[in-house]
Specification:
The protein is an alpha/beta fold. It contains 17 helices and 11 strands. Helix 9 packs antiparallel against helix 12. Mean pLDDT is about 90; it is low at about 1-30.
């Protein structure tokens, strides 16, 4: 634990780097060179690699994004993503190693995302890693992609377990309690699509790529940008899942409601699908607002559940928000307000570590090395898993508690 009082530590968090946590731990304190881990990430559409030492120093990293390609096709096509990973992986790993000045022989282990993700993408990273592991006889650390997102905060901040973590991305929406490096309690998750996926689909339906201000922006970014000058009061979309007192999320019904509104506006304005509506900014603002309000409401229930059941203690309670959608400033501000109102510390990794990257995979490898868990000396029978839950699912217990969420200055206004 931190040598300072917890209150002081919480105020000094930004200056107090996560690596300090290891200085007192046996391995970093031992004489001899610190152990090094190579992390490899290919779970979706980014090819990433990085080399970290056990103090959390990024010695070298490289990343190839496929966003441009997928923006043109209007979504990720798995076999295209796979082909791009195949073309890039060797170069990306070489670049990360070259930047770090480290050879594969000097590594303590190789850590790679094996679950969850796109099967064809995961396969490329795993195949390449196993060749390296085999050739250089290195230990292998298989990584759960969502665990890596959840633990990234411990690279940049001094955060002790347990903490509440909300993972928001194009593929996931998860509320969990991180109790240890590979010890998570799952409180709730999206029962259909993820918020990033929904925002992208709405952006596509609104043809925002044709908007002069958004022609090179990904869907979610375009919505956030246009929403800044839109008025969300012009459209009211019902908050999803109001009747369920749990921490699950749902975005596909909401998407249908939004589509209905768009169709209706197109009729009114005499506009064809694929042409821009005059009211896109207001629709973008209303969509972003209801997504934020839904996320805030479920997170509020998770906070109340954790405090009520002493899973988190009021004094040290922390909410960590990570994943691509965590960089949406409107959603982030709403969650910050929620955390403040409930006496929770609020932390997000820097934006570049919120999206998929090799650094978080290598860091998860370092965390596992320290905890001594999940390090394989034989890779027989190791497989990638496109679907993989995070931790122990206690969502039924959350539902049984049936916690009513107070209108915190009306959840509606939280995200202002």
């Amino acid at each position: 634990t931190s040598p300072m009082g917890s209150t002081a530590a919480r105020f000094l968090q930004p200056a107090w780097h996560g690596r300090a946590a290891w200085l007192s731990s046996s391995s970093a304190g031992r004489a001899g060179a610190p152990r090094l881990v190579l992390g490899i990430e290919t779970s979706c559409d980014d090819t990433g690699a990085a080399v970290l030492d056990e103090a959390g120093t990024v010695l070298g990293e490289a990343l190839r994004s496929q966003k441009e390609v997928h923006l043109k096709t209007g979504g990720i096509i798995p076999h295209v993503a796979q082909q791009l990973h195949r073309e890039n992986i060797q170069q990306v790993v070489k670049e990360a190693l070259r930047a770090s000045g480290v050879s594969v022989n000097e590594l303590a282990a190789i850590a790679t995302t094996v679950k969850p993700g796109l099967a064809l993408s995961l396969e490329v990273g795993l195949q390449y890693s196993l060749q390296l592991v085999d050739r250089y006889q290195k230990p292998f650390i298989p990584i759960h992609h969502m665990e890596a997102h959840a633990l990234t905060i411990r690279l940049t901040e001094q955060v002790e377990f347990p903490f509440l973590v909300l993972l928001l991305s194009g593929g996931h929406c998860i509320l969990a309690v991180a109790r240890g490096v590979s010890d998570f309690l799952l409180l709730g998750q999206s029962i259909d699509i993820a918020p990033g996926d929904m925002l992208d689909k709405v952006a596509r339906r609104l043809s925002l790529i044709k908007h002069p201000e958004c022609h090179n922006m990904a869907g979610g970014k375009a919505i956030e940008h246009l929403a800044q000058t839109g008025d969300w009061h012009q459209y009211t979309f019902r908050l999803p899942m109001q009747q369920y007192r749990n921490c699950d999320f749902s975005f596909s019904g909401l998407q249908s409601l939004v589509n209905k509104t768009i169709i209706q506006k197109e009729k009114e304005e005499g506009v064809q699908e694929g042409e821009l509506l005059s009211c896109v900014k207001d629709i973008a603002a209303a969509v972003q607002h209801v997504v934020a309000a839904h996320i805030i409401q479920r997170t509020y229930r998770a906070m109340l559940f954790c405090i009520k059941n002493s899973i988190l203690l009021p004094k040290t309670a922390t909410l960590v928000v990570s994943g691509g959608v965590a960089s949406n400033q409107y959603i982030r501000k709403g969650l910050q307000t929620l955390a403040n109102a409930n006496g929770f510390a609020f932390l997000c990794p820097p934006p570049r570590l919120c999206t998929d990257n090799g650094v978080m995979i290598a860091w998860n490898g370092i965390e596992r090395l320290h905890a001594g868990c999940g390090i394989l000396y034989s890779t027989d029978g190791i497989r990638y898993e496109p679907k993989a839950p995070l931790g122990t699912d206690i969502s039924k217990r959350v539902e049984e508690d049936s916690i009513k969420v107070p209108r915190l200055r009306k959840t509606q206004q939280l995200a202002r």
